[in-house]
């Protein structure tokens, strides 16, 4: 089982989470009913598909074991299992926050 999962979000979005003490997700997460996360090998594809051209991004590393049963691995792109968090992301589960760049053209390169 993967020990670390990742959330990509904007800097302002993460600042709000830090002030609130928890991360409730973005508009896409709210629409789908869970917080979209990625495994390490899924991050590049997620960046290219959903965040191309953005320069305000952070990658939030999360201890998957700290999320308990709220973390579900479910089929998504191409049938691959993606981590989905049903509930808020507690900041205590976050192990690192760093800047990340997305490709300009959505190519993933």
Structure description:
With 109 residues, the protein is of the alpha+beta class. It has one domain (4-99): ADP-ribosylation fold. It is built from three helices and eight strands; from the N terminus they run βαβαβαβββββ. It has helices spanning 11-20, 27-32, 43-50, and strands spanning 4-10, 22-23, 35-36, 57-63, 71-75, 81-85, 89-90, 94-99. The strands form three sheets. The protein has a three-stranded antiparallel β-sheet with strand order 1-4-8. Strands 3-6-5 form a three-stranded antiparallel β-sheet. A hairpin with a 5-residue loop joins strand 5 (71-75) and strand 6 (81-85). The longest helix has 10 residues, at 11-20. The model has no long low-confidence stretch (mean pLDDT 92).
Write the topology of this structure.
Elements: E1 4-10, H1 11-20, E2 22-23, H2 27-32, E3 35-36, H3 43-50, E4 57-63, E5 71-75, E6 81-85, E7 89-90, E8 94-99
Antiparallel strand pairs: 1-4, 2-7, 3-6, 4-8, 5-6
Task: Label this structure with key terms.
109 residues; ADP-ribosylation fold; 3 helices
Strand order of the largest sheet: 1-4-8
Largest sheet: 3 strands, antiparallel
CATH H-tier superfamily:
Protein of unknown function DUF952
Helix content: 10-25%
- Count of folded domains: 1
Number of strands: 8
Instruction: Tell me the span between the first and last alpha carbons.
Output: 27 Å
Which class of secondary structure composition applies to the elements?
A: alpha+beta
In terms of DSSP E residues, the strand content is 25-35%
What is the global morphology?
Answer: globular
The appropriate CATH architecture is: Alpha-Beta Barrel
Following the backbone from N to C, one meets helices and strands in this order, namely: EHEHEHEEEEE
Query: What name does CATH use for the topology?
Result: ADP-ribosylation fold
What is the CATH class name? Alpha Beta
- The whole-angstrom Rg is 13 Å
